[in-house]
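Example for tutorial group B:
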């Protein structure tokens, strides 16, 4: 197999318009992507990673407290402002509605990455893109092992054997199939999004992915030995602040602060 050089991802769509309804009072005060993990907003880690991943344009479909998101991004990433496109897509809009409102910014036949703004991650996006190109599939989905707070009941022959709470599903092995979850990270061609018949208020992911599954046109990229951690409730936020060891981010912060000191 021929080696693929680092591909260019023309667009990244960073969904950052949703309400953090399961984050209680914290979610009411702030946009979910601005909630702090290790003293930095989630969106800081996301944008930092995107900027290091051969991405030409980052589109922000703004929604709940979108003005705060735009203000933060423009202040802390001012040197990259030419890469950013901010689009007001409505406070209560579904993802499908947000995509309808931003797809006019897409050129035809380009690679686009869809990213959730509430996820801390450090896996290699360029490897994800290479996997997509090599597979020659229409759509690539990144899968991961999520933490399940409610817990698992391990049974055999209908007999309960073990109960585990707040564990990752990768801890459970099954000979018949492998358990993994959809991470919310997607790579596909802009032409698919421009031509797709979005029905507002409809779950476009279920419709789109199942359509391409019928023709075996879905590639799955497995996130292994790397962080991919959605923060959609208070328990996950507490866990992230206590347990996520983000070595790459600590190094990035050191370099970033060093540059600021040198420039001043």
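The residue assignment follows.
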């Amino acid at each position: 197999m021929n080696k693929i050089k680092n591909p260019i991802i023309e667009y990244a769509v960073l969904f950052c318009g949703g309400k953090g309804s399961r984050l209680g009072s914290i979610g009411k005060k702030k946009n979910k992507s601005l909630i702090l993990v290790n003293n930095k907003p989630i969106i800081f880690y996301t944008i930092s990673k995107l900027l290091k991943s051969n991405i030409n344009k980052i589109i922000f479909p703004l929604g709940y407290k979108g003005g705060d998101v735009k203000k933060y991004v423009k202040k802390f990433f001012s040197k990259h402002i030419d890469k950013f496109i901010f689009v007001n897509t409505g406070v209560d809009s579904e993802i499908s509605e947000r995509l309808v409102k931003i797809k006019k910014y897409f050129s035809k036949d380009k690679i686009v990455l869809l990213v959730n703004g509430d996820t801390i991650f450090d896996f290699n996006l360029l490897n994800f893109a290479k996997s997509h190109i090599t597979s020659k599939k229409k759509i690539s989905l990144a899968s991961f092992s999520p933490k399940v707070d409610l817990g698992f009941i391990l049974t055999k022959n209908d007999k309960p054997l073990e109960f585990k709470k707040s564990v990752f599903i990768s801890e459970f092995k099954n000979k018949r199939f492998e358990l993994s979850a959809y991470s919310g990270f997607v790579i596909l061609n802009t032409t698919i999004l421009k031509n797709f018949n979005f029905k507002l208020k409809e779950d476009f992911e279920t419709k789109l992915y199942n359509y391409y599954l019928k023709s075996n046109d879905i590639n799955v990229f497995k996130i292994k030995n790397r962080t991919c951690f959605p923060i959609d409730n208070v328990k996950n936020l507490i866990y992230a602040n206590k347990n996520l060891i983000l070595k790459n981010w600590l190094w990035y912060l050191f370099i970033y602060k060093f540059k600021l000191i040198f420039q001043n």
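The domain at 9-145+180-263 is CATH 3.90.550.10 (Spore Coat Polysaccharide Biosynthesis Protein SpsA; Chain A). Compare this with the pattern of hydrophobic and polar residues in the output above.
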